Structure formats: structure tokens, C-alpha cells
Amino acid sequence: MIYLDYAATTPLNRDVYEAYIKLLKNYFANADSAYSLGYQVSGLIEKSREHIASMLKIQPQEIIFTSCASEANNMAIKGACFQYSNRGKHIITTKIEHSSVDASFKQMAEVFGFEVDYLDVDNQGMIDLQVLENMIREDTILVSTMYVNNEIGSILPVSLIADIIHRKNPKTRYHVDMVQALGKIPINLKGIDLASFSAHKIYGLKGSGLLYKNHRTLLIPLITAGQQEYGLRGGTSDSAKDIVFAKTLRLALEAQQEHYDYVIELNQYLREELKKREAVFINSPKNASPYLLNFSVPHYKPEVLVHYLETSDIYLSARSACTSKKQDISHTLQATAINEEIGLSALRLSLSHLTQKEELKIFIKALDQALTEVKKQR
Q: How many angstroms separate the Cα of 204 from the Cα of each of 6, 17, 52, 220, 269?
């Protein structure tokens, strides 16, 4: 099998798996139980929180365990909107966000009456910082952007964005979806109020996420119940997943630079090979994350190519997994004002330190074969 869809999910790290199984067997007690077994599990959760905080250079009480990054995004956006609605109901995001962010903003507008402004992007997937500054008002309570786009890999200057936001309106909160950045590029949370992360993008467990919430930011909880997660997310803790997140993150960060350097070489090889083919257009910017490479083959249906390559045991995607069932142009590519024929034929490769160069050679050969055997769409 040649797997080239690591942006959708990653295989579980063996060490993480073994630690998880041990936790399931030996530390199954409810972390909120008022006896020694519960205290033991609760203590392990707090140690995990402390280790994660140390690695991210934040405070333990600024970490909230969630079921996934989509939940973290919802918690950050809706929780902040409800908390600060007395200050105003103006919120800002971009036109290239993950579906969980995009849908949250639409719900805040359509159901709760918030006013949403959407930042345009250029053909590189970048926002205009001056436009952002001009867009921020006295009643702007939240701005939300990605760090690394999950389709074309563009990297937004989140530190600069944070500076602009807090200089223009110190009361405005800034949320960043950092899912495709964690474990791949350096993360600095200074100046950022809220940030979302996921374990299964860094060889950890599915159903495991984090929300960073700095101590200055308040949220209205979306799940009300007990005392869990500082009263911000009620319900029995999924203790084994919470505990093993620290190990997942440590393993990812320890090898981050080594993996990055290796993946850059893979990305450069792919770009060079794809550029040799006149039928292929590369959609990812040159300075994008090397872990993602979006390209198009106009007049070919991407889902047909995906299924053709699958017959050779090669797996990639036509778009983000959360919108993979759709067959129109992705909202990210549409926002970059890409040619419609190019946008409709987009494919996404995502790489890993597990990817072998020989696998990419086989992929290129299979792609060439597909372009000769698959019927073009006029």
C-alpha cells in the first residue's frame, strides 16, 4: 500500500498504541471518583496536562482536553462569541477555513444573529493584513484563522496577525486552527488567545483533541455537567486518551525538524516530476507546508483518478476528508480565484516521514498510466 493522505489522518504510532492499551487495562477508574483509583487516574491526566503545557510553553490550566479538533474549534468560536456578545457581535474569519470553523461562523450568523466578515485570500492562499486591520472594529470580539491550510498548505503569519488584532482592539480574541501545523512546523502561542489541535494528525488516537485557552480568555461552556476541564467541558473524562496525548506530542516534537527536512526533499522531488507533465498544474504555493501538495489535471475528474490509483493500492484525496463527498470545486481553491477547470480537477497529496521516495516514483508512473487510460471529461 502507498498511502499519500496523511493530512486526513495518520497511522497510530506503535509506542502510543502500547501505552494506550496499558492505560485501558490498568487505569480504567473514573477520574472523578472520590477514592484512590480515581485519584490515581486524575493524577495521570494532570501530569499529561503539565507535560503538554511544558512542551507548548504555556500553563497547564490553559489546556482543555476535547474529543477532536472540530470540537475544539466549536468550543473556541461559540464559547467566545457567547461570552463576549455583550461587547459586540462582529466576528471575522477567512474564506479558506476548515469546515468546522466555517460551519460555526455560519451558525453564529444564521442562528444567533452575529455579523460575520470574511477575509479574501490571494492566489497563494494569503490574506491581506491591511484589509484585516481595517476590518477590525470596536465591536469585533473574535477573529479566527488557520495556521496551515489543510488543502493547499499555505502558511499564514499568525504572530503578525495576532499583533495586528491586539494593537487595533485589545479586547478582540484571536483563535487559530493549528491542526496541520502541530508536529510539523514551529508553534509559538504568544499573542494567541485560543488554538485547536488534534492527536490523529500526529500519529495519535482519533477522538482526541486539545483546546488552548489563555488565562485572559473566558468561554461559555457548550457541554454543561460537572467539574471536568475546569467546568468548561462536562462529562466523564476519556482518561486514557487524555493521558496518552502527552506521549503522542512528545514523540512528534522530538523528531519534528528531522521529519521536516526529509519531507522537504520528497516535496521537491514531487514538484519537479509534476512540472515535467504539461497536463499538470500545481496549486500549492512554493512556500507552503511541504507536507501538502495540491495539483490539478484539467479535464479529468479527480474522483475517477483517485479510484483508478486505488486499484494500484495508491491512496490520495481530491480534497479535505471532511468534504470529500462533494464533487464541486473546493471552497479553498474557489477563494484563490483559480481557473474553474483547474479547480474542479484538484487532487491533494499529503506526505509523511513514513513516505518513501520509491513510493513516489511508483505514484508518478501510475499517474502517467492513469492519464492515458482514464477518459477525459469535456
A: 12, 8, 14, 28, 28
Tell me if the domain spanning 2-8+255-373 has CATH number 3.90.1150.10. yes
Checking if the pLDDT of 322 tops 70, the result is: no
116-120, 167-171, 224-228, 229-233 — which is least confidently predicted?
Answer: 224-228
Q: What is the pLDDT of residues 50-70, one digit of tens each?
A: 999 999 999 999 999 999 999
Contacts of 96 (CB under 8 A, 6+ apart): 121, 125, 146, 149, 151, 154, 331, 332, 335, 336
> pLDDT tens digits, residue range 207-224?
999 999 999 999 999 999
Q: How far is CA 194 from CA 62, 129, 203, 214, 224, in A?
A: 9, 20, 23, 7, 20
pLDDT at 328: 77
**Residues involved in catalysis:** 322
Q: Residue 255 to residues 10, 208, 223, 351: CA-CA distances in angstroms?
A: 16, 21, 36, 15
Instruction: Please tell me the distance from the alpha carbon of residue 201 to that of residue 78, in angstroms, as a whole number.
Output: 24
CB 109 within 8 A of CB 102: no
Instruction: Give residue-wise pLDDT tens across range 344-375.
Output: 999 999 999 999 999 999 999 999 999 999 87
**Range(s) for CATH 3.90.1150.10 in the chain?**
2-8+255-373
Helices (H), 143-288: 158-168, 239-254, 256-275
CA pair distance 223, 65, nearest whole angstrom: 13
Alpha-carbon span 98 to 178, nearest angstrom: 11
Q: Which fold has domain 60-238?
A: Aspartate Aminotransferase; domain 2 (3.40.640)
Alpha carbon distance 21, 43 (integer Å): 18
CA distances, 17 to each of 20, 112, 203, 241, 291 (Å): 5, 42, 10, 10, 24
- Return the closest-CA partner of residue 264 out of 184, 155, 183, 363: 184
**Residue whose C-alpha is closest to residue 175's, from 161, 187, 186:** 161
Residue 317 has what DSSP assignment? B
| Placement of cell 526533499 in the chain | 265
What mean pLDDT do residues 141-162 have?
98
**Mean pLDDT score, 96-102:** 97
Residue 346, strand partner residues: 296
pLDDT at 338: 87
